[in-house]
Design brief:
By secondary structure, the protein is an alpha+beta fold. The chain is built from ten helices and 17 strands. The structure holds zinc ion (ZN).
């Protein structure tokens, strides 16, 4: 959790990818995060019990909060912005995100990028742990952390959270994050809306990945023969790769979340794509294998960089 850690980096063809850490440590109890959880999964799939994914001392899942930083040459893109510093998160389940004071921006600089150099910020969806560093507090008001970036959000996702019967009803504990990390950008006319299938930069395309939220998106990055997909919260943990029928308690449309998970995992297994999820423990990214008993996770060998 400090800036002197080695920088996590890999490539998708000619495109560079860095992981900007906000925090990494024990997060939710799996029985809380996954209502269908059965602890037998740890014995059936010993990799899931390894320290990278499961903290035996606390019985909690190892959880990463981070941004993915993508350098295409022309663009410096941040995908999702973690939880943010100095933000009030009143709900007890969000205590880990309350009034943080973490060296996220120093970790970004360690990746060779200053906040003012970021050209584009993409929020895959508008949950509390994906929008936090959109803004930072300056002189008592929330200002854009990335002063020159275009902030891109899915048109339908923003509408979902602007509708009192949408996100605010389904997940009232998330409204604080909309207020301090999304609305100030709207007020300052910093948000650009997109629709799935839009190519937002050379080799970078938005894809629909609905279910976790009704309008969650994933980001496809292609370069030459290489293919990567930033999967947002299609799955939180490798546990959901072996059990794609396990939703998190924060999946707003459960049946659609399962269908999207199965589709994304199947397509990645077929294509050999590298998946970059939002919260998976080290090495934080990997490919999907498929055997007689279903899917399994193949962690990325960091020597591929
Ligand atoms: Zn998340």
């Amino acid at each position: 959790m400090n800036a002197t850690k080695p920088v996590w980096r890999t490539r998708i063809g000619a495109i560079e990818v860095f992981r900007v850490e906000e925090m990494l440590g024990p997060g939710f109890d799996p029985a809380f995060l996954f209502p269908a959880y059965d602890k037998a999964v740890l014995a059936q799939h010993p990799m899931l019990a390894e320290p990278a994914y499961f903290d035996a001392a606390t019985g909690r899942l190892m959880s990463s909060m981070q941004s993915w930083l993508v350098r295409t040459g022309a663009e410096i893109i941040i995908i999702d912005t973690g939880c943010g510093n100095g933000k009030t998160r009143s709900h007890p389940a969000f205590r880990r995100f309350h009034q943080l004071d973490l060296p996220y921006l120093a970790n970004l600089v360690a990746c060779g990028v200053r906040p003012e150099e970021v050209t584009m910020v993409i929020n895959t969806h508008l949950h509390v742990d994906h929008v936090g560093w959109n803004t930072r507090l300056e002189g008592g008001r929330w200002v854009p952390t990335f002063p020159r970036a275009r902030y891109l959000m899915a048109r339908a996702e923003l509408a979902h959270w602007q509708n009192p019967e949408g996100g605010p009803r389904m997940q009232p504990e998330g409204v604080e994050a909309i207020a301090d990390s999304v609305l100030p950008l709207l007020d300052q006319a910093r948000v650009e809306l997109f629709d799935p299938s839009d190519e937002i930069a050379a080799g970078v395309t938005i894809e629909a990945a609905p279910g976790h939220t009704p309008s969650q998106i994933a980001v496809r990055v292609a370069s030459g023969a290489a293919d990567g997909l930033f999967t947002a919260d299609v799955f939180h943990q490798p546990m959901q790769i072996v059990r794609p029928d396990w939703n998190s308690r924060y999946c707003e449309l459960p049946d659609l979340a399962i269908a999207t998970r199965r589709r994304v995992l199947g397509e990645a297994a077929d294509a050999g794509s590298v998946l970059f999820p939002s919260h998976t423990g080290a090495p934080h990214a990997g490919r999907i294998g498929r055997g007689a008993n279903g899917f399994h996770f193949i962690p990325l060998a960091m020597t591929e960089a």
